[in-house]
Amino acid sequence: MPRNIITYIILTLMLMGSGVHAAKVYLNGVDITQVTEKTFKNVTTVRIDDKGDIHIEAPHYEVKVLEAGSESANSTVTGESNEAGLTEKYFIASQGPAPKVQYELAIVINGVTRIIIPATKSSVIREITGWLQKGKNTIQITATKKMGVEGRVSTLKSDEVSVLIGSGHEEKKIVKIDSLKATFKCNAASTNTFTREYTITAR
């Protein structure tokens, strides 16, 4: 798989009634029991636990869970509009063990705060096309440490969160970033609040 193509699966989970149910299926720790007709390639391991639940590890996939009734699940996200008439779609996607890194990320696009990624969210993907203009755009990402009552979970540099900014497309709820424009990174070894600024050209 080319390095500049990252694959994400967007799942919309509907509320289910309580009761006895069959074994669950997890992909990279996220419950995907309700997903059907999907083949996963490049799977690293498949494990069945003592409850009979199936755990699939596939590093090429990032799973984004949208609760039913949420803004994204109802396709009302302002970032999906395209009033500027851009010919490409643009996305921001985070990946990595966020609960270990413990950084909240505030994303400002052209001077307006558009996205807040909580320190507990390991995988977030949002379309930002509607917040861009033709030509140059400024994107600022501010990372603020949020350790909470549990204190510092990790001090390892290897526990790292990346935020990818790029153009791409969506096919059957799978978003592919085809052209990477910028990458932001933060890791668990740091505790300082810091900001990085990027300029991207939208077409």
Mean pLDDT value: 80
Number of domains: 2
Strand content: over 45%
Helix and strand content put the structural class at mainly beta
Oligomer status? single chain
Strands ordered across the widest β-sheet: 6-1-13-12-7-10
End-to-end span in angstroms? 26 Å
In the predicted model, the low-confidence regions spanning at least 5 consecutive residues are: 12-18, 66-78
Q: What do these coordinates show?
A:
The chain is an all-beta fold. It has 2 domains: 7-16 and 23-67, no CATH class; 78-202, no CATH class. It contains 1 helix and 14 strands, in the order βββββββαβββββββ. It has one helix at 98-101; strands at 7-13, 25-27, 30-31, 45-48, 54-57, 61-67, 89-95, 103-109, 112-117, 124-127, 135-145, 160-171, 174-187, 194-202. A 6-stranded mixed β-sheet has the order 6-1-13-12-7-10. A 4-stranded mixed β-sheet has the order 3-2-5-4, with no helix packed on it. Strands 9-8-11-14 form a 4-stranded antiparallel β-sheet. A hairpin with a 5-residue loop joins strand 4 (45-48) and strand 5. The radius of gyration is 18 Å and the shape is flat.
